[in-house]
Amino acid sequence: MTVRTRTEASISARSSHRYTRPSWDCAACGEPWPCAPARAELIDQYAQAKLSLAIHLGSVLVEAIDDFVGRPGPVPDLYSRILGWIHAERFD
Questions:
Q1: Range of the domain at 38
Q2: SS3 (DSSP) at 82
Q3: What angle do CA 67, 71, 77 make, to 5 degrees?
Q4: Distance between CA atoms of 87 and 63, rounded to whole angstroms?
Q5: 13 in any annotated domain
Q6: Which one, 13, 66, 72, 82, has least CB within 10 Å?
Q7: In whole angstroms, what separates CA 10 from the centre of its chain?
Q8: C-alpha closest to that of 64 among 29, 18, 28, 30
Q9: Nearest Cα residue to 88 out of 58, 50, 48
Q10: Would you say which domain of life the source belongs to (predicted)?
């Protein structure tokens, strides 16, 4: 049985561009998540709640870090990939 976190369930309910674990690649296009379509959907979904987007992605970041801890091989820059991109985005 696969156990899904609340964060994972909320993303998958809204978009086909959701992450898959433990790779953290997009289920729809295979790109590192959040892919461009996922980012656009997140910006649209949280347009009126920028702080909520940061909190949401922060919790996703913690889940990704948990998945990569102890795995062999290089660890991707998860902060830039999952959370850091929102600083450069405009929500106007």
A1: 6-87
A2: helix
A3: 65
A4: 20
A5: yes
A6: 72
A7: 11
A8: 18
A9: 50
A10: Bacteria
